[in-house]
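Recall the central idea of this unit: under ordinary conditions, the amino acid sequence of a chain determines the structure it adopts. In this exercise we apply that idea directly, starting from the sequence alone.
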Amino acid sequence: MSKQKVLIVTQEMDPYTALNDISTTVRALAPHLQKNKMEIRVLMPRYGTINERRHRLHEVVRLSGMNIIVDDNDYPLIIKVASLAEKSVRMQVYFLDNEDFFKRKFIHHDKEGKPFEDNADRTAFFCKGVIETVKKFGWPPDIIACHGWMTSLIPFYLRTAYSTEPLFENSKIVYSLYQQGAEDHIDADFAMKASINALSEEDLAPFMNGDTPDLHAGAIKYSDAVIKGTPELNEHNTALIANLDIPVLDVQGEEAPAASLEFYHSLLEEEVAK
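Accordingly, the structure predicted from this sequence is:
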């Protein structure tokens, strides 16, 4: 029997970015899945804060060279990879790079703490780039695990613009909800920037709360399951998962990797039973 495949898409991961709920969760989850006979691939942005020499990143020429359209402009996508050793496990982490979007010394804010004006463009570029890169892999994931608001468009794109793509037809999308949201990072023109193919701003209505972007809400609407990644959520985010008709896992910390593995298995068993 072939190994079950888990695609981990994250906006942050230790040791490449600062320690927080997202980066530490993904760092613990990825090797645990691999140790337990799952085939994994991790994709994240190649921020300018990541030292390529220290972490031994190198370009994957066969995957690079695509252009990703954002707001009617073409941006080249460069794919880099690094090996990350964790005890007895060695993992491959793939980085999506573009000089316009990621070659800067801060992740989401400038040195004065102001959000980058192009965070909506960066999010759309990253999410589209992930999907196109996995298509180049020719690697059909059983589970697509999304971590962080920068991954929030992936469930939407897969269930709409890419709904007829055979590679993803059996994939289960699991969105991990963290307290860190996009409210302070994304401008109100997000819907216009995030549109793709024949989709309109109206199609992105679930991602807006009035004039304010609500990326968590949109991601959850198009996901098959949700994991509560932060112990304490604010009132709004708590309400998002209060009465869902999809599975929700509430676990964090040291128990999260094992619980997530079991959660993934249960989702895949449900699919087989249908």
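The CA atoms of residues 40 and 81 lie 14 Å apart.
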